[in-house]
Amino acid sequence: MRAKLDAETLLEIILLLILVWLVLAVIDAMLGLVGTILGLFPFTNIIGLVIAILIVLWLLDRI
Questions:
Q1: Does residue 2 fall inside a structural domain?
Q2: How many domains does the chain have?
Q3: Which of 11, 20, 39, 47 counts the highest number of beta carbons within 10 A?
Q4: Considering the entire predicted model, what is its pTM?
């Protein structure tokens, strides 16, 4: 059985995921810089935790 998605659609999905990854990396770097300047703890764990919580809430149809 063949897939119903075209190769171009899969490529667009992959490129979108890469774009999201890069945007999150930039946000993480900015928050890390602000945390370093203010002497706060690193924000990398908080960002990952927030993303994981949002995914779980979305899967449970709570958002």
A1: no
A2: 1
A3: 47
A4: 0.54
